[in-house]
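New to this. Please check both lines:
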Amino acid sequence: MTDKRIVLTTASSEAEARKIARFIVEERLAACVNIVPHITSVYRWQDHVEEAAEWLLVIKTTLASFEKVQKTIAKLHSYEMPECLCLAIEDGSPKYLAWIAESVAAPLAGEAPTREE
């Protein structure tokens, strides 16, 4: 087991996905965010089955930065309750795992931005 994590979230548009991804990487909360376009999500919301086109974000980060990633997603996202799942990375390429560690800064105190920022 490592301290590296994959965080999954979805966005309602390409623009929203890019905004979230760029902010997270620019702030050194993640080493990389993959944006997977044009997925279809089928889900239950307020007792109705819904279907929507979304963009999937695959965020590579560390356990220490997860809380700030989660807060950032919540503040930048348009959804009332955005998906934010944290998956442990059991093992991986040592060089790639080291790159994640080097790319993600130790979290600093402070708040995540507001949607308007």
